[in-house]
């Protein structure tokens, strides 16, 4: 009789919290976190306390991931509209009361200094996934137009700060949701073709378009210079082209096997600018070479494929759209960072997930991965 009233042990009480975690996703996260810590120690051991701070940021992100993963998807859905509204209000606050640093007005003092555009990286896919979930089974062209408007408002506000890198990430996160919701290829192909033709014309007429007295109108001067520097960094090798040139030199210097752990000369002789943040991929390539780069890419592919599998198996439209967008966001982060360091994309200040130093970006990644884990857990509970 007394056994019926025995209190459960501490282990029995906390065990349900850990049930349902997706082990392949968890393994992928641990692999990438390990790669990030190894890289930061190698390239940042002589750069102040970057390694210790990077480890602290990872622990904070891990805590955030664990907490968010406990929130079931139907609860996440209730946060979509408030998070989006709060994000837009804070972006408007930046516009009127923001703090300016280095020519950009991106921060807001609300008792502590925050960057509201970071919130939109999560709020945007949440909002659009919620919108299409509400319209499930009755989608019309007007619904896609409304989704486009919901997307363009925060993107325009972030562009105005100006912050091209974050605006690209917010835009892509929303476009992924719209695409997965069933946007017709007839509407996708025309802008893709126009963009391809525009890039081809830009390359063909680079010498005329990048002349000093040409005003592009649609871009700010520093943005125009970034594009022109990408097309021909040798025009200003010690100025605007320095970042791209040094990054490509470091990548090439790594060869097949790399110079070795903590042995990068371009890295530790300070030729690579921002070697622990935006340009850490160049430092990684120099020390670990082509083999290390392929291994890093394989880790990202493993994580992205697992995220897409979770999206395909998610039980609701909201979960599928959100999981797909969050997963492809990681792809965009990695592709844009590697592309800009390698000289195939303009330098826009996008960090390499898990690897680049940065507290806000790491916590945002933790929130996104926590939501992905929550969706994976909900699928397992529904199957059991």
Task: Describe the model.
There is one protein chain. This protein has 384 residues and is mainly α. It has one domain (21-383). It has helices at 10-18, 23-44, 50-69, 73-97, 116-134, 141-159, 164-180, 185-204, 206-209, 221-231, 242-254, 265-268, 280-313, 317-342, 359-383; strands at residues 99-101, 104-109, 113-114. Strands 1-2-3 form a three-stranded antiparallel β-sheet, covered by helices on one side. It is 70% helix and 3% strand.
Short description:
This protein is mostly helical and 384 residues long. The chain has 15 helices and 3 strands. It has one domain (21-383).
| Category from helices, strands and their pairing | mainly alpha
**Percent of residues in helical segments?**
55-70%
**Order of strands, widest sheet:** 1-2-3
SSE ordering: HHHHEEEHHHHHHHHHHH
Number of helices: 15
Number of domains: 1
Notable features of this structure?
384 residues, mainly alpha, three-stranded antiparallel sheet, 15 helices, 3 strands
Secondary structure elements and pairings:
Layout: H1 10-18, H2 23-44, H3 50-69, H4 73-97, E1 99-101, E2 104-109, E3 113-114, H5 116-134, H6 141-159, H7 164-180, H8 185-204, H9 206-209, H10 221-231, H11 242-254, H12 265-268, H13 280-313, H14 317-342, H15 359-383
Antiparallel strand pairs: 1-2, 2-3
Helix pairs in contact: 2-3, 2-13, 3-15, 4-5, 4-6, 5-6, 5-7, 5-14, 5-15, 6-7, 7-14, 11-13, 13-14, 13-15, 14-15
């Amino acid at each position: 009789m007394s056994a019926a009233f025995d209190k459960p042990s501490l282990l029995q009480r906390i065990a349900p919290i850990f049930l349902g975690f997706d082990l392949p996703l968890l393994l992928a996260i641990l692999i990438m976190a390990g790669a990030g810590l190894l890289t930061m120690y190698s390239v940042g051991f002589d750069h102040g306390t970057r390694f210790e701070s990077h480890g602290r940021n990872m622990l904070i992100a891990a805590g955030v991931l664990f907490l968010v993963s406990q929130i079931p998807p139907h609860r996440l859905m209730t946060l979509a509209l408030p998070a989006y509204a709060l994000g837009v209000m804070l972006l408007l606050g930046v516009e009127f009361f923001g703090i300016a640093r280095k020519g950009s007005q991106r921060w807001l003092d609300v008792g502590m200094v925050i960057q509201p555009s970071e919130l939109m990286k999560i709020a945007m896919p949440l909002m659009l996934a919620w919108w299409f979930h509400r319209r499930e089974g009755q989608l019309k062209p007007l619904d896609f137009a409304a989704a486009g408007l919901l997307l363009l408002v925060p993107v325009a506000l972030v562009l105005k700060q100006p912050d091209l890198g974050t605006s690209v990430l917010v835009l892509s996160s929303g476009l992924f949701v719209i695409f997965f919701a069933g946007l017709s290829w007839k509407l996708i192909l025309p802008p893709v073709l126009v963009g391809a033709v525009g890039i081809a014309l830009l390359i063909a007429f680079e010498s005329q378009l990048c002349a000093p007295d040409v005003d592009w109108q649609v871009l700010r001067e520093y943005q125009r210079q970034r594009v022109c520097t990408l097309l021909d960094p040798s025009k200003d090798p010690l100025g605007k082209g320095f970042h791209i040139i040094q990054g490509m030199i470091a990548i090439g210097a790594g060869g097949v096997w790399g110079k070795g752990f903590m042995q990068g000369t371009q890295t530790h002789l300070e030729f690579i600018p921002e070697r622990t943040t935006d340009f850490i991929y160049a430092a990684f390539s120099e020390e670990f070479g082509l083999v290390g780069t392929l291994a890093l890419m394989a880790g990202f592919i493993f994580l992205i494929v697992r995220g897409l599998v979770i999206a395909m198996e998610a039980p609701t439209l909201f979960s599928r759209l959100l999981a797909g967008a969050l997963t492809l966001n990681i792809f965009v982060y990695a592709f844009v960072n590697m592309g800009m360091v390698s000289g195939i994309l303009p330098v826009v200040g996008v960090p390499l997930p898990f690897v680049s130093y940065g507290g806000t970006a790491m916590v945002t990644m933790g929130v996104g991965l926590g939501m992905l884990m929550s969706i994976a857990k909900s699928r397992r509970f529904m199957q059991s």
